[in-house]
Amino acid sequence: MATSSSLFYPIEKELYSLERNLKTVAGTRHPILYAAAKHLFEAGGKRVRPALVLLVAKATSEKENINNGQKRLAEITEIIHTASLVHDDIIDECTTRRGVKTVHNVFSTKIAVLAGDFLFAQSSWYLANIENLAVVKAISKVITDFAEGEIRQGLVHFDPSISMDAYIEKSFYKTASLIAASCRGAAMLNGSSTQVNNDLYLYGKHMGLAFQIMDDILDITGSTKSLGKPAGADLTNGNLTSPILFSLAQETDLNYLIEREFCNNTDIALALFLIKRGGGITKAKDLAKEQVQAALYCLQFLPKSAPVSSLRELTHFIITRLS
C-alpha cells in the first residue's frame, strides 16, 4: 500500500521548503508565541492540505510549475488549519494531539487562544500579500466557516436527533471548506478557467468530507497510540458523528448512553462496542467512499500528468487510512 509521503514525490522539494518556512512563522518577536508555534509545527502532521495545493498548482500548469503565490497559499492553508486545531483543542479540552501535549497543556489556555489568534492573523497577512483579490475572498471565508462549524457542533452536543445532512454540513464548515477553497485558489493563481476552478473546488469539498468521515471512523476504531489522542474522544465531547448516527436505529441502548452523556466509566467502551455491532462503521465507510468517488469524478477533466495521478492516489489513500 502506498503511503501519503510516497504520493507527494512530484512536490517533495516544495514540501521540504514549506516545512522549513512553517517553523519561522512566529518569528522571534515574542519568545512564548515562537515557542507555541514551534511546538505546533514540530508535532508534524501529514501536511495533506498544503500537498493538495501544490499538486493542484502543478496539475493546472502546462509546464507543471509552481509559482510563489501558490507556495505561499500552501503555507497559509497549513497555518489556518493549525490555528483551528489550537482552538478546537481548547474547546474539546484535549490533552494530546498527534501524540504530543496540546498547546494549552504545555503553556496555558490564554497563551493557546492568543497563539491561535496570532496564526489566523498571520495567515491573513500572508494572504493579503498574494495580491489576488479573488483568492483572498475565497480563503478569507474559510476562517468564518471554521467558527460556524464549531458553533453548529456546540449547539447539538449529545443530540441524537441530528440529521445526516446537518452532520455533512457541519463537516463541510469544519474541514472541507478549507480544502475546497485552497484547491480552487491554487488553480486561480494559474489563471485557470472558471470550469476548472469550480471542478477543483468540488474536488476539494468531496475530498475534505471523505477525510472528515474517515477521521470520525478512526475516532471509534483507532487506538490512543495510532490517533495521538484517546479513542472515543468525539463521544466524550458530545460530538455525534456518522458512525454513531448510523448505529442509533439498530442499537437503541446508545440513546440512553447519550442521554446520560456517557457519565459512567464504562459508557464509552460500551458505546464503541454498540457502534461496531450496529453496523455504523460500515455505513460511514460507504459514505466516505461515495465522497471519494465524487472527488475522483471532478479530476477526470484535467489532462493526464504525474501530479493528477498523485491527486487520484491521494484520494484513494483516504479510504485506506483504516489500519
Automatic annotation (TrEMBL):
GO terms for molecular function: metal ion binding; prenyltransferase activity. Its cofactor is Mg(2+). The keyword Manganese does not apply. The keyword Chloroplast applies. PROSITE patterns: POLYPRENYL_SYNTHASE_1, POLYPRENYL_SYNTHASE_2. Pfam families: polyprenyl_synt. One of its GO terms (biological process) is isoprenoid biosynthetic process. Keywords: Chloroplast, Isoprene biosynthesis, Magnesium, Metal-binding, Plastid, Transferase. It comes from the Eukaryota. Belongs to the FPP/GGPP synthase family. This is Prenyl transferase. The lineage of its organism: Eukaryota, Rhodophyta, Bangiophyceae, Bangiales, Bangiaceae.
